[in-house]
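User: Structure tokens for this complex, please. No commentary.
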Amino acid sequence: MEPMQTIERLSFNQITADRLSLPEVVDCCARAEVPWIALWRHKVAETGLAESKRLVQNAGLRVSSLCRGGMFPAATAAERQARIDDNRRAVDEAAELGAEVLVLVCGPAPDKDIAAARQMVEDGIAQLMPYAQSCGIKLGIEPLHPMYAAERSVINTLAQANTIAEQYSPEQCGVVVDAFHVWWDPELYAQISRASGRILGFHVSDWIVPTPDLLMGRGMMGDGVIDLRRIRSAVEAAGYHGPIEVEIFNRTIWDMSGDDVFALTKDRFIKHV
Amino acid sequence: MEPMQTIERLSFNQITADRLSLPEVVDCCARAEVPWIALWRHKVAETGLAESKRLVQNAGLRVSSLCRGGMFPAATAAERQARIDDNRRAVDEAAELGAEVLVLVCGPAPDKDIAAARQMVEDGIAQLMPYAQSCGIKLGIEPLHPMYAAERSVINTLAQANTIAEQYSPEQCGVVVDAFHVWWDPELYAQISRASGRILGFHVSDWIVPTPDLLMGRGMMGDGVIDLRRIRSAVEAAGYHGPIEVEIFNRTIWDMSGDDVFALTKDRFIKHV
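Assistant:
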């Protein structure tokens, strides 16, 4: 396959440069001519929603997604309702920022009953859906790697995400394919195909070996073992031609200057994605 | 459900006391009246095969399994053959030690083609099977947690292990259910049921939160989020009533004295398994 040889679809997820503020990342995008950005709610909150929107628009950037909604399971009905309320605010913010997709990191179980927590996720998405639809925001269910099942999400395979998403129209709900989370899955290509027409995002990074850490072990594309080009090809065959987010948690990358991270990201995106 | 309230089925996997030699672990088993032991090849090699056998027999211990065969994928045919040769030696050692089961940790991919590596695992098991059968050793395919896909095994779900094992009779090949590796799997209970009659081992530990490390993050039963009793119940409903191995990689536990580890293991086994 030919390299992509363009950054037209590159979206810079701002967590990849975690030390930078939102205004600083927007400046880097503009200087590097990266056309898309993915935002995190806590970063938007630091800068302020209106100011974040103004900066992104003035820079001519498009917002591929907002991270993150979700975190549905909780021990009490009151707490679960509070999570829904927070998700509604996330939907509002996504709409204000012009993001089409709110990424859902669905949350861990409040106790040892992981099956019950998975049901809470389904229920929470059902409860949130009418409001999201009324705001024109699609909910993108992102399965997280099984090593995060205890702390971040009980949705750990694309099969689970597809099963939930299929309860809705593709205009309402879909899945987000993050290569780092799903590359190991024996059902990966079957499930990408099953997700045809409802893939709402594609995230790339790499799995580095030896893996130094559960959270901070992601690497820059090309530094690990993931066959990113094969996965991109499958995602495209399933009809997804939208922005491709680079989302990396890695202390070495965080210690680089913003412009250096952007230069490296663009180079690796062209060579390996 | 009633607690087990007996250690009749407890098998101490010697890696749980990694600082001890095989003779020291055997002594601890005898003092603690633990009836089963699981051995590792590198520990057996340190003490010598004949001496290891003598010690285990003299202590009246039964060997639940030998760890480990596997590691089938490799870049060249010659290297794959060398792995098979090593697996035959592992079968010999298992037979000499009176272990019925050789646990297979199937190995990582030599490159980015994880599907090809999975095929190499199937081919390797097929190649090894006649010899194992002739020695009366069952091959127990242990799926490893997906976070080990890049470094230890491309067999990451019980579904994969079942699919391979079903190509053989239950007298030849089965699966090993290690709670730490499979607790997160949405298909866990369906796949345990599917494995009825061919479960060759059940391993317990716990998943501690926050998870400190990929390899050393296992905890003592009761210290984490795994619903061990529910999994034990499912494994028993699938017909497994053999030894239950406690297998824990954890530096804090490794720093305890042998007798203290055994006391804690027995206590937690009775309370939480």
